[in-house]
Design brief:
This protein is an alpha+beta fold. 20% of the residues lie in helices and 32% in strands. The strands form 5 sheets. The protein has a 6-stranded antiparallel beta sheet. A 6-stranded antiparallel beta sheet has the order 2-3-10-5-8-12. Strands 7-6-9-4-11 form a 5-stranded antiparallel beta sheet. It binds 2,5-dihydroxybenzoic acid.
Amino acid sequence: MSLENAPENTDERSAFYDRIADDNFTPLWQVLSNIITAEPQSGCRAHLWPYSKAREYLLESGQLITAKEAERRVLILENPGMRGLSCITTSLYAGLQLVLPDEVAPAHRHSQSALRFVIEGSGGHTTVNGEKTTMEVGDFVITPPWAWHDHGNKSDEPMIWLDGLDIPIVSLFDTSFADRYQEETQPLTKPDGDSLARYGTNMLPVDYHSKSIVSPIFSYPFERTREALEKLKQKDEWDACHGIKLRYINPNDGGYAMPTIAPFMQLLPSGFSTRRYRSTDATVFSVVEGSGVSIINGESFSWSPRDTFVVPSHQWVTHETSEDAVLFSFSDRVAQEKLGLWREQRGR
Ligand code: GTQ
């Protein structure tokens, strides 16, 4: 079996290929090297979206259309190597969402999972399954699959957050379902902070036994995550490739917080240069604090707070910082691990 080149063509072969094509047959040997590659080979490219530009365009879109009319006023971060496909990696979607003061993004639900990572503003909210969660910068918020959710903003500043959804994964499996709630917003059935108190304090209600593959915690407040990272910085046992990197978990089983998207937060101490690293989970980064430079597949990307950048599957990356930097990130690692596909490699 040749993985590199297709066998040569002859007139006789070509005539055969043409004849069977009409009946929806294709010879494998003509396409094998394109569909089973020696290494990952997508069009996904490394890219950085500077926040200054994103913010300007988002606020401009705020003059053009309301959140209500748009359903969700989002500018999709499209990977430059896969334009028109509404995705940032082959398996994930990302966008920046704007909710202006007093706006409502109406209640709906879909089979796609979503995460929100808050970038700007304070006091906006999202309601998930009858519980309202206030959003502050750095908070990581989950919308589980098929959960009713609506967003609002009762503050007097724009709220902007990064959306991460598994839209391409759901498309791959052709399992997309969506539904509109009969009212603009859903009724609140739980007090604010209920799920965090119940499931998010390293305790669980006695006799609670859930095997749900989605975390019951809707919102992971930044304050706690930041404090943990700061504590861990004190002892300099940092991972050579990741600095100090934590993953958001599902307290039901210690697995990732979401079934298809793996979320992380990491701290790269000032002056830290990471060792070369690559893994098969293309990863989206959102800069929370600090600035630095990432070299992805030989190309240099300088980042500062609120920028978004993407590292494609299996491309070598290093990060370098001149001040403490905090990076949120997400990838499909959880899905790849479940399917036995995930690989990583550490350079020297
Ligand atoms: O907030 O529910 O960026 O349904 C894309 C689709 C956000 C949302 C997106 C959505 C949402």
